[in-house]
Design a protein that fits this description.
Layout: E1 2-3, E2 29-30, E3 34-35, E4 42-43, E5 51-54, H1 56-62, H2 67-73, E6 78-80, E7 90-92, E8 104-108, E9 111-112, E10 131-138, H3 142-145, E11 152-158, E12 168-176, E13 181-190, E14 194-205, E15 214-227, E16 231-245, H4 254-257, E17 267-284, E18 287-304, E19 307-325, E20 329-347, E21 357-375, E22 380-399, E23 410-432, E24 437-448, H5 452-455, E25 474-487, E26 490-508, E27 513-533, E28 536-549, E29 565-576, E30 579-588, E31 607-617, E32 623-629, E33 637-641, E34 644-647, E35 652-660
Parallel strand pairs: 8-11
Antiparallel strand pairs: 1-2, 3-4, 5-10, 6-7, 8-9, 10-11, 12-13, 12-35, 13-14, 14-15, 15-16, 16-17, 17-18, 18-19, 19-20, 20-21, 21-22, 22-23, 23-24, 24-25, 25-26, 26-27, 27-28, 28-29, 29-30, 30-31, 31-32, 32-35, 33-34
Length: about 650
């Protein structure tokens, strides 16, 4: 173990809210930073792309309330929300607009968090007290991760019990404006051969807008046991339960007059999840076998002004893999096996007396992949990989008249379809250690299958066809080139990318169906920088994206809900060894509103927002924080769709205390 700053060997590990947890020393002893982008530890400067690693120390330093807030603040990611809460915020990377969340894969301990339908991710179901680290991988990663990994991958690893580690824990309490409250506890302990860890959390808020409250809690339990000298077997049990309200959109008149107002009071949803996971890691010399297996059940009920539904999603996953590390060659190969079942019931009343429609969907996926890295010279390496994936979907739909007291459900659709996708990846990475630089180039073939309710009408929203047999998977190529320099506390990286897709799935309002658009193209520039000058730490990013439709009715028009550029900047001032101040700013350029294919309607205006935070330490290891978001109370909207506005939160504050034990 050597002393290492949290920025790691490259700018790709830079911190937005301060590099290390508040302490009396500026440098902390940490293990060498590495990502597991290829399913095995890889130094950051050996990864051919943009990666961002957020460790436990930084999680505590940012004092974020949830994973979504942490990713926005420390990971430099952008989100949009139709409700204003983190319960359903949609992540977007590399120029994807509507449905961007379905093109970013989110994993928790190897288990896919993305829903099989178009429903968003509930970021509250993963408490930060249970998170050990997060990796953000920008760009297509289809060879290793397959379906949905077009824009990037977010890998969340929970705080696993470690045999031989010291026992201890922490208690976190927080409160703030708009009725915000949060309480969490984490503890771990054990022996030299076995250990356990547990995390429990409760949180909620009234919300900035009327009818935007959310509340719930979670429980994470893990147990680990050593196998042989270095092997480990870990089991994890999780349970979460949340309810959230939806305030609905405002008109162009109502939005500036009172952004807190809600025009509906009967839109809400509730979600509970139960999951059991098993992880095995068995090293044998230069080789290693590992596997992830999981069972999950997720129930979600929602009410949308006259439409009411209960969905139950069950999934099973098995992902074995083998890694061989030879003298100048790294090889990894594996399989991903997944089975998902989704059962949906629709009702005419919130009391759910009798369903007027029922849908059963089953999707099975089998994938095989392999990837290799070879050291050509001491300064140059090459890599290549391939993946083949097959999926099949069964759809059964029955419906009756919603006007009957007890509708008789009659079969309406009984369909089956199968798709096969493949991905390839190849490129190079070069390093010039004396110049403190590295550069890379890569090409990746990516793909995405249609989601269940992109292809089938069963969620209560009528489509042109009950089951669209003509909807094809998305597929295309990503090209990327990058350069990074890092010396001491200064760092800079520049990345250029282009994503060409065929058959991108979009909703065509003219025929009321999801259809395939012939061609789309996204080109972008990502610049990230960091520097330290005495007690000040500076960091910033600039992301430019040109996203346009290719052939077709809207050729050369901009893809809507994609800002042409975004920028972020932060400064952290270590005013005293026990006090740190932080100021964050973010700007998003204007973007065309949702469903504006022709780019003729009034766009969503640009916005600039600042946040401030104060972090301090007290005797006995106690830490406190005070933060203010939207410091200048800037009124802006997260989304504008068909002339309707979805306001973002105004100024709010939060204070908290972390108590170790």
């Amino acid at each position: 173990m050597k002393a290492a700053r949290l920025i790691g060997p490259t700018i790709l590990a830079m911190s937005w809210a301060g590099s290390a947890a508040l302490a009396t020393e500026a440098v902390v002893d940490l293990p060498d930073l590495a990502v597991r982008a290829l399913h095995y530890p890889l130094p950051l400067d050996a990864y051919p792309g943009v990666a961002r690693l957020i460790g436990r120390a930084e999680i505590e330093a940012t004092a974020s309330a949830n994973v979504q807030e942490l990713l926005a603040r420390a990971g430099g990611l952008d989100f949009r929300s139709f409700s204003g809460s983190p319960a359903d915020a949609e992540i977007h990377l590399r120029g994807f607009g509507e449905g961007s969340g379905s093109r970013v894969l989110v994993l928790v301990d190897g288990l896919r968090l993305n829903r099989p339908d178009m429903g968003g991710i509930n970021w509250l179901q993963v408490p930060l007290s249970a998170v050990e680290r997060i990796e953000v991988l920008r760009g297509g990663q289809a060879v290793i991760y397959g379906h949905q990994a077009i824009g990037g991958v977010v890998k969340i690893s929970t705080r696993a019990a470690k045999p031989g580690a010291e026992s201890g824990g922490e208690l976190t309490l927080a409160g703030g404006s708009d009725g915000f409250y949060q309480g969490s506890a984490f503890t771990m302990g054990g022996t030299s051969r076995a250990a356990f860890a547990a995390s429990v959390e409760a949180l909620g808020a009234d919300g900035f807008r009327d009818n935007s409250a959310y509340a719930g809690g979670s429980l994470f339990l893990t147990t680990s046991r050593k196998v042989g000298h270095d092997g480990i077997i870990r089991a994890a049990l999780t349970y979460t339960d949340f309810d959230a309200e939806r305030p609905g959109p405002l008109t162009s008149v109502g939005f500036p007059e009172n952004p807190r107002r809600s025009v509906v009071d009967d839109q809400n949803f509730g979600e509970s999840t139960r999951a059991l996971g098993l992880h095995t890691d068995l090293p044998a010399g230069d080789h290693r076998f590992s596997a992830d297996a999981a069972l999950r059940e997720r129930e979600r009920g929602w009410n949308l002004s006259g439409t009411h539904a209960d969905n139950r999603n069950r999934s099973a996953q098995l992902s074995p893999r083998f890694h061989a590390s030879l003298q100048s060659l790294d090889l990894v190969g594996g399989a991903d096996l997944e089975r998902e079942e989704l059962r949906a019931h629709l009702f005419t009343t919130a009391q759910r007396a009798a369903p007027f429609a029922r849908a059963d969907l089953r999707r099975s996926t089998v994938a095989l992949y392999g990837h290799g890295r070879v050291l050509l010279t001491s300064r140059m390496e090459a890599f290549a990989g391939a993946r083949a994936e097959h999926t099949s979907l069964d759809f059964h739909y029955a419906a009756g008249s919603p006007f009957q007291t007890t509708p008789i459900l009659e079969p309406r659709s009984d369909e089956r379809r199968a798709d096969t996708g493949y991905a390839v990846s190849f490129g190079w990475l070069g390093r010039a250690e004396r110049l403190h630089m590295r550069a890379w180039g890569r090409m990746d073939r990516v793909y995405r299958y249609p989601l269940t309710d992109e292809i089938a009408a069963y969620q209560g929203f009528a489509l042109g066809q009950t089951f669209n047999t003509n909807l094809a998977p998305e597929e295309g190529w990503q090209r990327e080139a990058g350069w990074a320099w890092e010396r001491g506390a200064a760092a800079l990286s520049i990345t250029l990318f282009q994503i060409d897709l065929e058959n991108e799935i979009i909703y065509n309002f003219r025929i009321n169906e999801n259809t395939n658009y012939p061609r789309t193209r996204r080109r972008g520039l990502e610049v990230e920088a960091r520097a330290e000058t005495g007690p000040l730490t500076w960091a910033g990013t600039f992301h430019h994206t040109s996203a346009r439709y290719g052939e077709g009715d809207f050729a050369d028009r901009h893809i809507y809900l994609v800002p042409s550029w975004t920028a972020r900047a932060s400064v952290v001032w270590q005013a005293h060894k026990n006090l740190r101040l932080r100021l964050d700013g973010r700007h998003s350029a204007r973007q065309f509103e949702g469903n504006d294919f022709a780019n003729t309607r009034a766009p969503l205006p640009a916005s600039t927002v600042f946040d401030a935070g104060f972090h301090g330490s007290l005797p006995a290891g106690l830490q406190w924080h005070l933060s203010v978001t939207n410091l200048f109370d800037r009124g802006y909207a997260s989304v504008k769709y068909l002339g309707d506005w979805y306001p973002a939160d105004g100024r709010s504050w939060r204070a908290g205390l972390r108590i170790p034990f």
